[in-house]
Amino acid sequence: MTVYRTLPLVTLLVAVPFAAAAQFGGMPGMPGGMPGGMPGFGGPPQAPPAVCQQLMALRDETQKHGIAIQKANQRKAPVQEACRLFKSYLSAEQKFLQGIEENARTCGVPPEVLKQVKESHAKASQIGKEVCEAAAQGPRPAGPSLSDALGTNPTLPSMTDGGSSKRGGTTFDTLNGNVLSR
Known about the structure:
By secondary structure, the chain is mainly α. The chain has helices spanning 3-21, 50-74, 79-107, 111-137, 146-150; strands at residues 173-174, 177-178.
């Protein structure tokens, strides 16, 4: 599978964890949390715990790397650059995944978000592996030309006899030669 056929899949892979991560909720002060703080209490909303803020920063960092891959795909970046971008994306996504695993309960992350991010990471890892393998192979050699495939060599007329053997070639040529050269 070519790199440019796999990169559009990345668009889907990059979008899924962020749509899922937007579902964080349940903790006071977190997106999707209870308005006005804790249920039954009329106090002001509390700031999210530091680990939750760090998790949201990891999410944003992963998203930034995913957008870089999308932009590289749009401008048809070289395979070597795509490999480098995938490595940084996968590294950021792995940190994000670990953060969700460690702090899901504290930050109110639903279990399906963790499942979606794990699936996305597995798919992105596979695509990243294919892209980096293609980058390691380097540029592909050009295939055989039509002459090579047909087993013929093109021959050009020789100009050693002063060009007198040349027949035809311009709009003004006739059976007896070029009208303009008379």
